[in-house]
Amino acid sequence: MPTVIVDVVLKPEILDPQGQAIVGALGRLGIEGVTAVRQGKHFELDVEEHVEDETIAKLSQTLLANPVIEDFSIRR
Amino acid sequence: MKRHDKSGIDLSHLDTVKKAKKSPEQVQPYAELGLAEDEYARVREILGRRPTSSELAIYSVMWSEHCSYKSSKVHLRQFGEKAPKTDVLLVGMGENAGVVDVGDGWAVTFKIESHNHPSYVEPHQGAATGVGGIVRDILTMGARPVAVLDSLRFGPANAPDTARVLPGVVSGISHYGNCLGLPNIGGEVVFDSSYIGNPLVNALCVGVLPAAGIKLAKADGPGNLVVLFGARTGGDGIGGASVLASATFDDDGDGGEKKAKRPAVQVGDPFTEKVLIECCLEIFAADLVVGIQDLGAAGLSCATTELAAAGTGGMLVELDKAPLRDATLSPEEVLMSESQERMMAVVTPANLDKFLSICDKWDVPATVIGTVTDTGRLQMTWHGEQIVDLPPRTAAHDGPVYQRPIERPIDQDALVEHDGAALRRPQTGEELKATLLTLVASPNLADKSWVTNQYDRYVRGNTVLAQPQDSGMLRISDDTLRGVALATDGNGRYTRLDPYVGAQLSLAEAYRNVATSGARPIAVTNCLNFGSPEDPAVMWQFSEAVRGLADACLELGVPVTGGNVSFYNQTGSTPILPTPVIGVLGVIDDVTRRTPAEFNSDGSLVYLLGDTTDEFGGSEWMNTVHGFLGGRPPKVDLARERLLADVLINASRDGLIDSAHDLSDGGLAQALVESSLLGEHGVRIVLPEGTDPFVCLFSESAGRAIVSVPRTEEIRFTDMCIARGLPVQRIGVVDVLGGAIEVQGQFTLSLRELRQAWSKTLPDLFE
Amino acid sequence: MTVRVGVVTFPGSLDDADALRAVRLGGAEAVSLWHKDPYLYDVEAVILPGGFSYGDYLRCGAIARFAPVMSSIIDGARDGMPVLGICNGFQVLCESHLLPGALMRNAQRKFICRDQRLRIENSHTAWTADYDQNQELVVPLKNGEGSYVADEQTLDMLESQGRVVARYMGGNPNGSQRDIAGITNEMGNVVGLMPHPEHAVESLTGPGTDGLGFFRSVVTQWTARVSA
Predict the structure, then answer these.
(1) What pLDDT band is residue B1 in, cutting at 50, 70 and 90?
(2) C51: CATH
């Protein structure tokens, strides 16, 4: 069965304190050169052949992501 | 030849009873599972053959220190032997939790338990699953869990590992407790170098139930069904079981790979537990269970053996029916799994449908996995093959009992002799002021809001008092004014100096805390945190502490209803300070009469109750200012504690006092600071004539409290104290305008300066 | 006879019992509504209580929003039925698009429980009619995901239309934009509030009784309508 990947990230204008905390932690680990981190979600869906792109887009928009604050991208 | 059952499962590697009978010479990894040679021999003797690997798994977990109490049993007996007579005890030690009658048809169940080692390994999940576990112990008694408290101990506050462990532990307790909808109403946070590498996370849960609705863990009634419900079983916490997966006769290379996949730490899901709680309570209300047990340490091994042992003694389990998260688990792994949020109930066939429909309503998976029998044996099959056939009592109750060697530590006398009498003491007012500021800012005495603000204290709407009050107090339900109060206290330093007295002082402090808020102490739970029982010096500490505790419970009239022992808290050969943590439960008839700890009434008179002498052994002053531990702990006078408690309870009930706060760590000075800052009311103090100000302010003599008394009640209050023989000394007056703690002739410290010092310590360290 | 106010219980709801109590103390009849049941049992107002519905899986309120009871509530809300979402309830209202914006993790990334000062900035909604304009309250706040966010346009609209119902005072406890503690929809019948008024209804167990007004408002308004 094919797998569809949906990645959800916060919109660029939304403040991401978790991402900021991760940058801080990287610094404490002595790792240099990582200037920004945005934290998001990665969904892996086992999808039957007949399910259309439109359906995936709809479920991504109404459930997997909150369009008020999140963007999503779909990969087959 | 591969043997398959009907569904194509490969059973050729399965270690069955039949196989065990035929291969007595089979070498088994009992040592890796923690069984001693003689224990393994005993298992063979009990069964009359070698155990199957599933039976070996069961005995190894059930006879572990954690489950069998083999090193502590002989000492813990004293709690029963010396138990004071009381007519409020409905369920005593030996069940999942003790239950006391609180009147009006209500009963309360409570218990404290440790989850120390997992919290070092994975602080958030270790602490979270600690909360989850104790909550299930309360639930399984038939009660709705209504609050939690937690007693936490970490290494030095500024140690790097403390920065790793503390925030994780707090977030774990916060997340799990808050998601369950349980207010966190009290506890402690203590720092000491001895806990680095061995943090202590002791979680207490209290629950409320109708006195007639107590549920017990027994499998009665042959023909009744055994139902496993809650979360699916996965590979949580089965690090040890991987040894069985790679047993010698099964050595086809799979073992190593499987080993790598097994998580050592249990992961909790509070949402699953919340729906489990609601589901169980509906089941209890409909009276649908004959017996019920939660799955905690040793999971299915424990639940099946204990339920069977307590009932008719017979049970047949089809282990493969247990719903799994991971289909590759072997039966040994299923038996050792410590997956969270699972319960096991015994249900009559007539009630099964109703039981399952309630589970369905809450979307809680529930599966019949066995039946109660009258064979007197616990038998289990795996896809039709018998893999377990043992007498359940032998696993659950007749485990090994050790008489560990006891030896007073060789350094004990020297420790007590070097009492720090020569340590430099502050003399002038300025020096006393500086000392006070140093102490209030020290991590043990500083404001703990950074921690406690992460806990929901309001949920359920029945919290009447919460930290930093002396006790956590709850209204039992909306339609009554009756309440319960709880406090948890321990003191590792006192206990190190004198385990007998130190344990008694810990109990006395929790007892005093409950009484200070106006509730009458009625029962005790304890969590005994010690080093290795294989160390005779540690066993001396343990035996002395238990003896002290049992004697004190008898004298104070409060029985131990249950608790927990945590051994092996040590790194290398250095044990932690011996740390018995005591939880005391009290009852108050009318919660509106409770006494707060803060000064709240301008002009009311401040009285010191009890006797103060020069006692600094194990004190915060010696520890913080001089980094010193030595001498004797303060004297314990249990008759005085009883008297003090009586006076405080009566004064509370009769409305004679505006506030009360007990004295403990940091002495009088700390109590004054706390009462002032909490209430934003300053105080003007005049220390008693002819006393040493340093001793007055910082000694940690026990059996003391400060109260603020309205002028209108002054005579009545002092008359009562005098009539009852309780020393009562006026030391000052509450003064809101002054906005300071003024110790006449010595120093004045503004509340602002005090608050500044007191409240920045923890945020500076952990924010 | 008094107004019937429903309180929904989702799996994981925690302050539902407290909301039921507050409804009773406010003078209304409290009706428990089960998430799977779309029937509203003739209630005239609904409260979505605090808690961790569905364990906050995916996002707070993201799954609760699709419960059978919610379709009836959304229909009712569009028809003017008063709906109050407290904390997790506020999250459900935003996920349902009955209110604009979203609630995110607290800026300080820790759960916070504190007695919070608030100012009521709209005393004309169905739930705040019992308060005076700009009245200050102290109400417990307890959340891990309480930071209100919305784009600038939405925030400006809320302000200009007077749809900020409550604002944090004495410091922002969770990073909410514009210190917003609660908002309402255009009609003024749907209100989302982060702090918990149901925990400020008895001085015995809370910081005071400042929260009672939320629960009295629906009773007062109903009484007025009924006697008119």
Answers:
(1) very low
(2) 3.40.50.880
Residues of chain C that touch chain B, judged by Cβ-Cβ distance less than 8 Å: 11-12, 14-15, 17-18, 21, 50-52, 54-57, 110-114, 140, 142, 144, 196, 198-199, 201-202, 204-206
Q: Tokens in use for B131?
A: 């909360």
pLDDT tier at B258, thresholds 50, 70, 90: very low
Mean pLDDT of chain B: 94
Between CA B705 and CA B727 the distance in angstroms is 11
- What is A3-75's CATH topology? Mth169; Chain: A , (3.30.1280)
Containing domain of residue C52, as a range? 4-227
Contact A45, A4 (CB under 8 A): yes
Strand partners, B199: none
| CB-CB neighbors (< 8 A) of C102 in chain A | 66, 68-69
Distance, in Å, from the CA atom of B288 to the CA atom of B358, rounded to the nearest integer, reads: 10
Known catalytic residue at B66: yes
Asked if B407 contacts B540 with a C-beta cutoff of 8 angstroms, the reply is: yes
Domains of chain B are 17-68+222-373 (3.90.650.10), 73-213+410-766 (no CATH)
What is the Cα–Cα distance from B583 to B242, expressed in whole angstroms?
37
Residues of A with Cβ-Cβ distance to C101 under 8 angstroms = 68
DSSP state of B248: G
Pairing of strands C190-193, C83-86: parallel
Q: Could you give the number of structural domains in chain C? A: 1
Domain extents in chain A:
3-75
- Beta strands B463-465 and B472-475, pairing class: antiparallel
**Helical (H) or strand (E) element with B272:** helix B270-285
pLDDT tens by residue, B515-545: 999 999 999 999 999 999 999 999 999 999 9
Residue B588 bridge partners (DSSP): B483
> Quick one: average pLDDT of B359-386?
97
Query: Which of the residues of C are catalytic?
Result: 87, 196, 198
Partner C contacted by A74 (CB < 8 A): no
Among the residues of B591-728, which ranges form H helices? 620-626, 638-653, 667-679, 693-698, 714-724
Q: Are strands C29-34 and B378-382 parallel, antiparallel or unpaired?
A: unpaired
Classify residue C183 as exposed, middle or buried by CB count within 10 Å of its CB (0-12, 13-18, 19+): buried
Beta bridge partners, B705, equal: B609, B662
- Measure CB to CB from residue B592 to each of C14, C55, C204 and give the nearest one: C204
d(CA C49, CA C31): 13
What is the rounded average pLDDT of the residues B126-155?
97
Supply φ then ψ for residue B74, to 5 degrees.
-60, -30
The residues, any chain, with a CB within 8 Å of residue B643's CB and separated by 6 or more, are: B724, B725, B726
Q: How far apart are CA B698 and CA B687, in angstroms?
A: 12
Query: How far apart are the C-alpha atoms of B603 and B52, rounded to whole Å?
Result: 75
If phi over 0 gives left and psi between -120 and 50 gives alpha, with beta otherwise, what is residue B42? alpha
Is B593 in CB contact (< 8 Å) with chain C?
no
Rounded distance between C-alpha atoms, residue C57 and residue A26, angstroms: 27
pTM equals 0.95
Distance CA B54, CA B67 (A): 17
Model confidence over C12-43: pLDDT tens digits?
999 999 999 999 999 999 999 999 999 999 99
Q: What ipTM was reported for this prediction?
A: 0.96
Helix (H) or strand (E) holding B497: helix B492-497
B415 token code pair: 């420790």
Residues 6+ apart with CB under 8 A from B599: B606, B658, B659, B675, B676, B678, B679, B681, B682, B683, B708, B734
Instruction: Report yes or no: B15 and B24 within 8 Å, Cβ to Cβ.
Output: no
The residue in chain B having the minimum alpha-carbon distance to the alpha carbon of residue C14 is B181
